[in-house]
Amino acid sequence: MSSAIIPSSNSGNEYADDEQPTTRRIRLLSIHLNPPLDHHHRHQLQLEACSARAKMDVNADKLSTYLRGKHRDIQERVFEYFNSRPDLQTPIEILKDDYRELCLKQLVALIREAGIRPFRYVVEDPAKYFAIIEAVGSVDMSLGIKFGVQYSLWGGSVLNLGTKKHRDKYFEGIDNLEYLGCFAMTELHHGSNVQGIQTIATFDPLTDEFVITTPNDGAIKWWIGNAAVHGKLATVFAKLMLPTHDKNGVSDMGVHAFIVPIRDLKTHKTLPGVEINDCGHKVGLNGVDNGALRFRDVRIPRDNLLNRFGDVSRDGTYTSNLPTINKRFAATLGELVGGRVGLAYSSVGVLKIAATIAIRYSLLRQQFGPPKQPEISILDYQSQQHKLMPMLASTYAFHFATVHLVEKYSQMKKTHDEQLVADVHALSAGLKSYVTSYTAKSLSICREACGGHGYAAVNRFGSLRNDHDIFQTFEGDNTVLLQQVAGDLLKQYQEKFRGGTFAVTWSYLRESMNTYLSQPNPVTARWEGEDHLRDPKFQLDAFRYRTSRLLQSAAVRLRKHTKTLGSFGAWNRCLNHLLTLAESHIETVILENFIEAIKSCPDANSRAALKLVCDLYALNLIWSDIGTYRNVDYVAPNKAKAIHKLADYLSFQVKNIAKELVDAFDLPDHVTRAPIGKQSPGEAYAEYTQYVGF
Question: Which superkingdom, per the lineage (predicted)?
Fold first, then answer.
């Protein structure tokens, strides 16, 4: 383009009276494609310039008050109790059997001595319950899991799958730990495919009992928490078989849940017909006694069937408000999503601890520097910022997303709204998978970011990484859960074209299917001003556009491959595409909730800090997948470069307030328990050297 028609910075929209129409149109188009500096407020992004800006004023206490919400007091009770009891704190080196007994001792003391009685909150106030379990898991992850097995899984199955007679009989004993229990769903041959489990519960009308049987080795209940040593009862998932008068002899009514005693309540001896073996030493969580259970025709009363969704009368008649096996199975699993909600929420707690330790150490540790000048903090190096600052931003993003999930789950438990149940099921699957996978990777990054000192067991990265690793597997394998999210998205997509409506979590797709699938705007694709790139609308539009493109292209590919491969083969052919689709959708939901949380923050300075962190989260993810945006010309080359520069700048700015941001997590030294993660730099090395004997 000729220099004669390139506008100057002060040309605006003015033009001379004698300017030709063609020249005027070309000049105005040039303004859109190359906006002047004062038009889009473009800023220099070099670190030299941005370092001159004043450091943002952040009050960690005010930000912490907003983050931790109304259940801060109950968490403080947990922290203060264990801080007052050094004898209950887990040592660095401990044998498996000793660890299991310590873990039980911790749990009993918390419930009976500290007076934390969480069971009623499982249904009445799930947000409070999850706040407690986050604090308990921060003290010791094995304790958090044992706590969850007792109250979320064993106790939750009684409350959610049983009826009043079960609550009346078992509530108090579960609450006070008299009835330590197990959740026996997983089998040696079946984990994710729960409908494929082989344990059998056959009704005997002569004795009015169910007979629980393990028909083969593949049906042995495996990895059952509390089973190896401490458990007295178990919720056992089995196929309900009813006798019939036809040639088959029995009718399979699908998977149901049964309360099965496994040890004598007084003597603690294993009951007749029950075989219990120890799953042994694990990669992590060795304070939890995982065991294997085999049942050899164990008889239980008919009342031990958890009969909320299906019941058997004295004469063997089956009744249910749900007409099919699949609907009953879906309803059963729908009541168990609290476990996924809790894991996603707790995983964020683990990420907070790891990020706190790594960032505090990175602020403390000094290495190298300009010639003849003092050494500088390793967090001043761009490479360290790139490792830890997007992680810190993600931690905040995940916090608000999982708080939102807990709120939706709480609403679901109160209203039992069918649409909300479906929404929570898909959202919990996606967030559990995405957050736990991210945390698992981040734990290794934090360890590496702290160099050799990160390798010391006392600084916790090893135990955190090993204990958390299984979060990616239990309560649903992460890859399987992402496929559930993708399947739900495709179902919503089909409903859209049948004239239906989108579920709440997917509501943005209503507009995106019409708007975002059109050709990208060649004008906005070139906008690179900082105000534009930090505009939540641009960020959300970019996330939604990517998800919509992935959804539409996945639907096309599946339709194509189904013709030749069938539905199962087509799904497998497109599997990686579908996993990327699910992750993109979850990232969109996370960003939406982060943006909404910023709007709700009452303190202006905290709001500004959160906006900075949110911008880093969004732009870092856009840059991480910049190839996708470039391939469809959603982002022009100049804009891609601006996004990269701005993400670098924001990372630097977040670094400047990193101390306040991790302090706002409000994790005292006796919770992080890592010498290199001390709040006071002067104490960090002193405690570390004392630990090794100096």
Answer: Eukaryota
Kindly report, residue by residue over 642-657, the tens digit of the pLDDT: 999 999 999 999 999 9
CA distance 442 to 436: 10
pTM recorded for the entire structure: 0.88
| Residue 466 CB burial class (10 angstroms; 0-12, 13-18, ≥19) | middle
Q: Quick one: which of 367, 452, 430, 446 has its CA closest to 589? A: 430
SS3 of 473-514:
CCCCCHHHHHHHHHHHHHHHHHHHHCCCCCCHHHCHHHHHHH
Contact 537, 520 (CB under 8 A): no
User: Which helix or strand (DSSP H or E) is residue 259 part of?
Assistant: strand 250-261
Active site residues: 475
Secondary structure letter of residue 7 according to DSSP: P
The list of the chain residues with pLDDT below 70 reads: 1-54, 496-520, 522-523, 681-682, 684
457, two tokens: 């067991």
- What is the 3-state composition of the chain as percent helix, strand, coil, each rounded to the nearest 5? 60, 10, 30
Q: How far apart are CA 122 and CA 337, in angstroms?
A: 12
Q: At what angle do helices 461-469 and 418-449 cross, to 10 degrees?
A: 150
Q: Per residue in 478-518, pLDDT tens?
A: 999 999 999 999 988 887 655 555 555 555 665 656 666 66
CA triple 228-234-239, angle to 5 deg: 120
Burial (CB < 10 A; 0-12, 13-18, 19+), residue 339, is buried
